[in-house]
Amino acid sequence: MRxxxxxxxxxxxxxxxxxxxxxxxxxxxxxxxxxxxxxxxxHGLTQAEIEEVFAGTPAVLTDPFPDETRMRAIGKSxxxxxxxxxxxxxxxxxxxxxxPISARYMHQKEIAHxxxxx
Length: 118
Fold this sequence. Notes:
Helix content is 20%, strand content 45%. The chain is of the alpha+beta class.
């Protein structure tokens, strides 16, 4: 298992009951391995692009996946492309790591909706 040592910024927005709230998130880095990287990379993104989303202030929402606590992030890569990421947080050796589960570039219709609500 490989974990990135670069950590995202400490503040993120979360939607709580349709209200955007700024909250602190202390993430030690990213958790990448053969289980999640192929699923994320199949849509043409690089690991760096996915990590860049969290270097900014992405919109973070809860994901309705019933089996485990997952979240969704919407943000931009350093190149300015909109990215949608499903992720979870994992405790590894006493540190919280962000584990991307799936990632893709956003469609134009999604971008228009996101820009209209943010």
